[in-house]
Design a protein that fits this description.
single chain, alpha+beta, Hsp33 domain, 2 domains, 6-stranded mixed β-sheet, 29% strand, binds zinc ion
Length: 303
């Protein structure tokens, strides 16, 4: 069974890691659009990356990785929630050749990683943390690797792969320094563990299960493999969020569309869920007495 994540520990090397493979969740996500193969591949890699990052962080809410303002891929967004839900989407313009690499897809632009916790009682919005990641590198894994090298105390690297069937990834991270291990030994261990991971082929990442793959790499180390964490495709869209989006679009525009088309139709791009609002819904969102019902401030976005 795919659609799961395992944490693991290389105890003697003082390094922790994660392994992920997605299959049916990936099918649901790639089926929502007819992606050119290079866009599909990077969307898959981003999903593997966001699954690995979400498991490595402590939060109760969602983690979103978004790349925006680039050509020909104008937007790519993937989301992992703390309960194992995943979704993602990419937009592109023009022709994209089969052999387009990561740098051909994202000519300029920024990647933003946002961790947003659920609001606590009495809070409008939960706590939010954002990190900017430069799009410098030959792959998504490279960009994330340089980001960690610049911003984190802990050595962190990712290996990602995607094909039509599956997406997969491995992450290694040094454990925080402590007195039991000398810095030069820790560095040697890190070089050793990453050199072994470097030998992984995409094929191995995509087809081997966690124990087989980790045994192949680290059979000479003290490897501890933890129980699988299940992951699944899940969209967080809802009637309420659609109504909030219409509310922020403004009354004049909403009533204009209603007058022209008799209804307002919206499809969620993440899951293809179709939403339709009629004049009664619009009256409820924009009542004549001016007091909106059932809308929430600060929740007027789909992701
Ligand atoms: Zn949806």
């Amino acid at each position: 069974m795919a659609d799961k994540l395992h944490r693991f520990l290389l105890e003697n090397l003082h390094i922790r890691g994660e392994w992920v493979q997605l299959e049916s969740a990936w099918q649901s996500i790639r089926d929502t659009a007819d992606y050119p193969p290079p866009v599909e591949r990077v969307l898959g890699e981003a999903l593997a990356a966001v699954s690995l990052l979400a498991e490595s962080l402590k939060f109760d809410g969602s983690l979103v990785m978004q790349i925006q303002g680039t050509q020909p891929v104008t937007m790519l967004v993937v989301q992992a929630t703390s309960d194992g839900g995943l979704r993602g989407i990419a937009h592109w313009q023009g022709e994209i050749t089969e052999d387009a690499g990561f740098n051909d897809l994202f000519d300029a632009g920024t990647m933003v990683i946002t961790v947003e916790n659920k609001p606590q009682p009495g809070q409008q919005q939960g706590e939010r943390y954002q990190s900017l990641v430069a799009l410098q590198g030959a792959s998504l894994a490279d960009c994330l690797g340089s980001y960690f090298a610049q911003s984190e105390q802990l050595n962190t690297r990712l290996w990602l792969a995607a094909d039509k069937q599956r997406v997969a990834g491995v992450m290694l991270q040094s454990l925080p320094a402590d007195s039991t291990i000398k810095p030069e030994v820790a560095e040697e261990n890190w070089q050793h563990a990453t050199a072994l991971a470097e030998t992984l082929t995409d094929q191995e990442l995509l087809t081997l299960d966690a124990s087989e793959l980790l045994h192949r790499l680290y059979h000479e180390e003290d490897l501890r493999l933890y129980d699988a964490v299940p992951l699944h495709f899940a969209c967080t869209c809802s009637q309420q969020k659609i109504e909030n989006a219409i509310y922020s679009m403004g009354e004049q525009e909403a009533r204009g569309i209603l007058a022209e088309q008799g209804k307002i139709s919206m499809d969620c791009e993440f899951c293809n869920q179709h939403y339709e609002l009629d004049s009664i819904d619009i009256e409820r969102i924009f009542p004549r007495d001016g007091v909106p019902h059932g809308t929430q401030q600060g929740a007027n976005k789909l992701h």
